[in-house]
Design a protein that fits this description.
Blueprint lengths: L1 E7 L2 E7 L8 H13 L4 E5 L14 H11 L3 E5 L8 H12 L3 E4 L2 H8 L2
Parallel strand pairs: 2-3, 3-4, 4-5
Antiparallel strand pairs: 1-2
Helix pairs in contact: 1-2
Length: 119
């Protein structure tokens, strides 16, 4: 895992880069968030491919548990990926509602994520 640092408008954003799944559970999300916070970052960019597929099945409650932790600790999170591939109406609604907030967003590109998190 590599943490690429981006600084925009004095906001430190961590882009987490890996070829592997790094978030398999809520505890993994909490551990990553602690690591990022300890390094002085304000916000985090994760890639869909680095999150367990169970995250995108809302019945598992993994998404809610992880995103609640980011919200509680006020760490901004952008998840970058192709979310059109998911058929679930409840997931599409969840993404739509999340994107209304500034805390957790599901976006299509790194550029969109950086733009969103730098505001």
């Amino acid at each position: 895992m590599i943490i690429q640092s981006h600084e925009i408008n004095t906001i430190k954003i961590a882009e987490v880069i890996s070829d592997n799944i790094i978030i398999q559970s809520a505890q993994d999300g909490l551990d990553l968030m602690g690591n990022i916070y300890y390094q002085g970052f304000d916000k985090v960019i994760l890639y869909e491919k680095n999150i367990t597929p169970e995250f995108f099945d809302l019945k598992t409650k993994i998404a809610g548990e992880i995103l609640q932790k980011f919200s509680n600790y006020r760490i901004g999170l952008a998840i970058v990926g192709d979310f059109d591939q998911y058929e679930s109406k409840s997931l599409k609604d969840f993404i739509f509602e999340s994107n209304k907030t500034k805390q957790v967003n599901f976006l299509g590109s790194l550029e969109d994520a950086l733009d969103n998190l730098s505001k």
